[in-house]
Amino acid sequence: MQKRNLEVCLTPVLLPLYNIENSIVVVIDIFRATSSICYGIANGAEAIIPVAKVEECLSYKDQNCLLAAERDGQVVEGFDFGNSPFAYTEEKVKGKTIVLTTTNGTYAIDESRKRAHQVIVGSFINLDAICNYLRNQDKDILLLCAGWKNRFNLEDTLFAGAVVTQLGLDGFELDDAAYAAEDLYLQAKEDLAGYTSKASHGKRMQRLNLQEDIKFCLNHNLTDAIPVLVNDKLVKM
Amino acid sequence: MQKRNLEVCLTPVLLPLYNIENSIVVVIDIFRATSSICYGIANGAEAIIPVAKVEECLSYKDQNCLLAAERDGQVVEGFDFGNSPFAYTEEKVKGKTIVLTTTNGTYAIDESRKRAHQVIVGSFINLDAICNYLRNQDKDILLLCAGWKNRFNLEDTLFAGAVVTQLGLDGFELDDAAYAAEDLYLQAKEDLAGYTSKASHGKRMQRLNLQEDIKFCLNHNLTDAIPVLVNDKLVKM
To answer: A42: which of A34, A147, A223, B114 fits an S-S bond (Cβ 3.0–4.6 Å)?
Structure first.
């Protein structure tokens, strides 16, 4: 039987190097976009519309949507909220459509939807659900780390490593980045919070007093919900 | 005292994201370009001229140079040799100027020389010399992995990790990629050959029967020579 490709794209800049026409792309932006998207979908948001630019987000004004915009770790002035997971609770998002733009995560979604067979959204809070789903599809897999402003980051790579570790080597052909991600995860998994505290974005969030957000985003398996991109909207699979 | 930046650029595609005007860039292409360049300079080559394209290499014909060209792991037809380190012995290269183009390494040199304060060439065979030199300069450091066709690769990242490990954290501000490289190296260092055997380029070289080249390129500290780019030529520092 032919092996399925299991690859890790360490930043969106590298995406053009990958053939993803036959792939499920898992977009990963642990601190905090994809963690919040998973939480919002789990809490009954009808849809989350990821857009790359702040202006695009603004164009949804008066359409009865919640508008969420984050840049450089902070809520953009004039918006309902940014990408803190605590803004995506059931009481705030149930039945609502949210239009969201973030520094890294929504850009990664935007880039991958143009070519991928399917785009789903992953985070530690739906890790097992993501792995169970991927295991049962007959498609190649690309784990796409959103990174920080197109650079490599630790926390997204660790999540990619967690997925590689769960899926195992049987039946998959890994690229070098998948091996590296797996080994970093195995080294970090006993103390993810400690390990990611040296990450540049972790430090940035500590400076912005976002420790509670960090802690939340490292929770495992709070939900089975998988956000999937259908047309231009992320909805519950 | 202000800390110096110690960063790792995991593939040349990411180079535009880094400010390197005040940096020493260490170009890394372990299998095999930079290992062979270090070995050639150590063995008395007068200069090695890295060029990005095969045609550019050919234009040096009749100028009394050795012409070396490698693509996809093999010597390009019609050339004196490629980038196997065994072609860079003293008897072959002493006093000679070599014009070299390779799949990844020379591209990385070409991209970095446009902006960097200084470009030097690193490999396991001159690891200690590289680290001693870097330690004593008052410049930022960028470890530039040539990768494989612009993708991340394990062996270049491991060498970057070896440098980070030797330099230590004191006095340096690491980026996330530097932390990751260090941790991968610490995990792999007891058995670099075993670890890199899972690397895609390692497998590719095994298929091409280049095991002896791999083994050679993982030797540590065969020389103190450091190739440095002066104008368009790599010469002994």
So the answer is: A223
